[in-house]
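Entry 0007
Protein: Tryptophan synthase beta chain
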Amino acid sequence: MSDQIKFLLPENRIPKHWYNIQADLPKPLPPVLHPGTMQPIGPDDLAPLFPMELIMQEVTTEREVEIPEPVREIYKLWRPAPLYRARRLEEALGTPAKIFYKYEGVSPAGSHKPNTAIPQAFYNQQAGIKRLSTETGAGQWGTSLSFAGGVFGIDVTVFQVRVSYDQKPYRRAVMETYGARCLPSPSTETEYGRSVLAQRPDHPGSLGIAISEAVEIAAKNADTNYALGSVLNHVLLHQTIIGIEAMEQLEMADVYPDVVVGCTGGGSNFAGIAFPFIGAGLRGGPKPRIVAVEPAACPSLTRGKYAYDFGDTAHLTPLTKMHTLGSTFTPPGFHAGGLRYHGMAPLVSHLKELGLMEAVAYHQTQCFEAGVLFARAEGIVPAPEANHAIKGAIEEALRCKREGKSEVILFNLCGHGHFDMAAYTNYFSGNLVDDSYDEAELAMALSGLPSVSEV
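Output (structure tokens):
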């Protein structure tokens, strides 16, 4: 192996198709249910929120979905994203492992989220939609959809979880620079937001509440659709461009991963890096260990129940089967805002149930410690969310050191932390604490799960 650090693909190697893992599942995904009838929903049920192209991508079982040429043209602004060999991190750890990371912070918005924001805005523009509403936690998704709305001439309204809205004012400034409106959630703009504030005026917000507000706006306005940055099948589909590129770049490095690591909140960046490798394994290829790393303060995969639940707190969405902490669960306001969601993507949850992946949870101070070590070795300051993946990769590298194994570890560095420096300041000053979720609140939220009789 050479001493090469960067593995780059030219623009003409941007993938022409996204990969759909539903084509290779040994057991199909449980259906999405209408909360009123408890019957599987059809395309018409989703039509008030999404354009038909995205609805069809949500349900297709075709292995490849073509990426439209106008989307690939915009992708050229940052794709193909680089793959790095983390040689300096390996040296710092004293590990025989070979650590590679796919770096998605090179996008205009600084994260992996434009991989789906661009196609979602494109399909909505094609359908004649003038406005989009959405939610955001840390602001990565809100920033990305704001960017995409600007590209395709669509007005964007973003409901940002209040604790993140207060923590990250520069995220809001970037959204506004791209032309979007950014509101703290719960807000006074929606009936549901006002009802939450009436009960608790200082409510810190949650992604479930912000989703409810965004869905309410879309459902009440014919010219407005809803856009989601994670969880749904079509979102995970768009993110697979990450893993597809990584496969080709690892070929350039003449290696194949033994372990693939990604952080998990709703599941989009994890799916993006992991699904192409899981799919290759399901089709008879090598089967790397797949490790999802989540925050200990919002541990849907490791502590959640696999059950049908609402995707939002106001119960405006259909019922999906997923690992959930309960739709009314409000996690503590830890800094990895993009990972503060009560449920895990149905596809990721399904793969966990099938035994095709593992999940671990770490507290935020451990993850920031890993992120700082990474920054000092590799030079990139990671987003707080990405620190979880770094922590997972470091743990695997230290295991290799103990066992004397030279395994290949791949992880997704899903975004930079340049707008999250208040979190780093808190970490260095000793003010970053490891909040634990309220066990009683978790028990109450889980006790309120919908009653669904499955055949």
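Curator remark: DSSP finds 19 helices and 15 strands in the chain. The first strand starts at residue 6 and ends at 7.
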